[in-house]
Every structure is written in structure tokens, then in C-alpha cells.
Design goal:
The chain is an alpha/beta fold and 334 residues long. The chain folds into two domains: 170 residues, NAD(P)-binding Rossmann-like Domain (Rossmann fold, 3-Layer(aba) Sandwich); 152 residues, Dihydrodipicolinate Reductase, domain 2, CATH 3.30.360. It is 41% helix and 22% strand. It has 13 helices and 13 strands. The strands form two sheets. The chain has a seven-stranded mixed β-sheet with strand order 4-3-2-1-5-6-7, sandwiched between helices. It has a six-stranded mixed β-sheet with strand order 9-11-10-8-12-13. Strand 5, helix 5 and strand 6 form a beta-alpha-beta unit. Helix 5 runs parallel beside helix 6. The structure holds NADP nicotinamide-adenine-dinucleotide phosphate (NAP). NADP nicotinamide-adenine-dinucleotide phosphate binds next to helix 1.
Amino acid sequence: MDIALIGFGSVGKGVVQVFSKKQNQLRQKYDLSFSFKGIFTSRGAFLDSNGLDLQSILNIKDLTAHSSWKNGLSFMESIDDLDVDLVIEVTPTNIEHGEPGKSHIISSIKKGCDVVTANKGPLVVAFDELAELCRRGGCILRYEGSVGGGLPVFNLVRETLQGNTIHSLRGILNGTSNFILTQMTYERTSFESALKTAQELGYAEADPAADVEGTDAASKTVILANGLFGMNKGIDDVYIQGITKVTPEAIELAGNENFLIKHIASIEDGQIEVAPRLIQKTSPLAVDGTLNVVSLQTDLAKEITIIGQGAGGEETASAILSDVVDIHLTRKAK
Ligand SMILES: NC(=O)c1ccc[n+]([C@@H]2O[C@H](COP(=O)([O-])OP(=O)(O)OC[C@H]3O[C@@H](n4cnc5c(N)ncnc54)[C@H](OP(=O)(O)O)[C@@H]3O)[C@@H](O)[C@H]2O)c1
């Protein structure tokens, strides 16, 4: 399998590390051999039609000093000449226009490539368009890493809950806001103080708006609604309420009645929302710190809950790797 990777930040580097580390296992277990022919950043790209030496790229400090580096070369300029079967798209998320990921994914599908992405933007703004392009072109698009980092939500439903109807979903889809609420609950601190701790520990960005105001969790909920429930929703269809107005007093009152306040994403009866909600302390959704959780209500298996790290380069690369293996096995079976 010949691969192009777009984005070489936290997730992109995780992808290169994980593929390097698992090379032998992938060959032995799945008969999957691969070669990365291009790795693209916003400043240029590593390019080698014979396959890049991944270890030397991981080791080099100054990317521009690498023998395969092409300064200023973009994916869009290179796509016509790239001979690859699969594109991994992990550039930054933009949920207003989906770019640059949306154009990268559309061009890849139009060229006949399968695509794996963890980028929420293109999926939030153009889910149906991308799915339709794939149908017409016979391509596969997978996006396990876009929701819940390493949590295998889509693969769980596709591969192990076949035949089940998913009635509804509830979950915690943003580790930063969950960490802040956990701090407020157990350390009895204000929102501002908990946010400061989250920033000091590197869990929250300098601009935490997308996390604490709920738009990050809302984008993931849109992807779940469209990908798991076959809806056709956008971010404007989500009722969003952030956690900025949650007070330590409200958390204490809830605690006295054996409830926690959590930032809950839900898809139920066609309604999608992300908002602070009371949950029982014994609920499967009562996970703390930066953990994410997704709980599905199904007709046959009843309630299924998965918990794990919703972010991190290696965790997200795990989801990307599983998508790539799945595409390889699907193609092999044809
Ligand atoms: N980090 C996580 O834990 C996590 C978890 C789940 C999903 N995601 C999603 O995964 C994606 C990547 O996240 P990240 O944390 O790896 O981001 P990041 O560290 O900011 O890295 C983004 C990478 O994309 C490159 N890039 C930006 N514009 C580009 C363009 N036009 N063409 C080619 N490359 C371009 C950047 O290039 P430069 O190196 O030149 O800046 C950088 O290498 C995002 O969509 C994010 O929402 C992340």
C-alpha cells in the first residue's frame, strides 16, 4: 500500500511512529506492507517515489535539512504526480469551511484514493458530499480518530454490533472540559482556577474556547450523528451550552444528591446536544480527568460503554492505523 500523509504535527508524527513500530506486525498479521511516498506540512514536503525513510524523518530536527525535503511544495500541487493508494489527512480542524482538509480529501477521492482522517472540519461541513464522492468513485473514507482519539466507536458499531439498532448515544467527548469539571468537583475550585490548572498541565490551549464552549464536542457529535445514525446534520443543528457558567456551588448541590455535573453530548430522538447535565455518580458516564466516554443504547446488546483517552498523538494514530488495516483487509477481500 502506497501512502501519502498530510500533516506532520502531533497526530502526523504519531502516525509515522506507530507505522514504523508496527511494520513487522502488520506484515505478519495482515499481510500489509506499506510505503510512505509523501509527507506534507504547511511549509513543504518530504517526497520520495521509492518510499521515504521514516526513521530518518522522525530523527531529524531541522526538516529542511533532510535529503527528501522539498521546500514550499504543497499536497495540492503534488497530487497529480503522486502514485499512492491511500491518503491520511491530519491537518488542523476548521469547522467553518473545513479547509485545507476538505480540498485535500476531495482531490484524493477524485484521484481514486482511499482516505483516512482525524480532521473533524471536512466531516462536519461536508459529510454527505464526501460520502457521495466515495460512493461514485468506489473509494473508502474512514474517520475513527476524528471522535474520541483512540476510542473505537465507529469500528465497534461496524465490526462488532452488526445487526443492532443504535437507539441513542450519550458521552463525554472533550477531555479538557471533563478535566476542568473534575477539578471543580474534587478540588472545589472555580471554573477560572480549574482552567488555569488545565492550561499549566498542557490539557487546555491558550485559547480554550472550542473546548469549554462546547464547539469541539459538538463537531464530534455531528460526526457521530451522520456516521452512526445516518443523519444529515451540521453544527447549527446542535444545541450547544458550554461549561463556563457551571459554578462550584451547583456542583456541590448536585454532589449532595449523589449527582455529578458532566458535559454530556447526546443524540436521542433526532435531537443533538452538548450541555452540562446531571448524571448519577454510579453512571457509566461518570469518568474523570481527561477521559472520554461513549455509551450506546442498542436494541439487542442493550447498553455498551467504552472509555479511553480522547486525544494524544499515539492514541489517535491507533485509530488511524486500525482504519488503514480495515481498508487493506476490505480491499484484499474483494
Ligand atoms: N492532537 C490530538 O490529540 C487529536 C486527536 C483527535 C483528532 N485530532 C485532529 O487531528 C488533526 C491534526 O491534529 P494535530 O494535533 O496533529 O495538529 P498540529 O499538531 O497542529 O499539526 C497540524 C499539521 O498540519 C500541517 N498543516 C497545516 N496546514 C497544512 C496544509 N495546508 N498542507 C499540509 N499540511 C498542513 C501543519 O504543518 P506545519 O508543521 O508546517 O505547521 C502540521 O504539521 C486536527 O484536525 C485535529 O483536530 C487531533
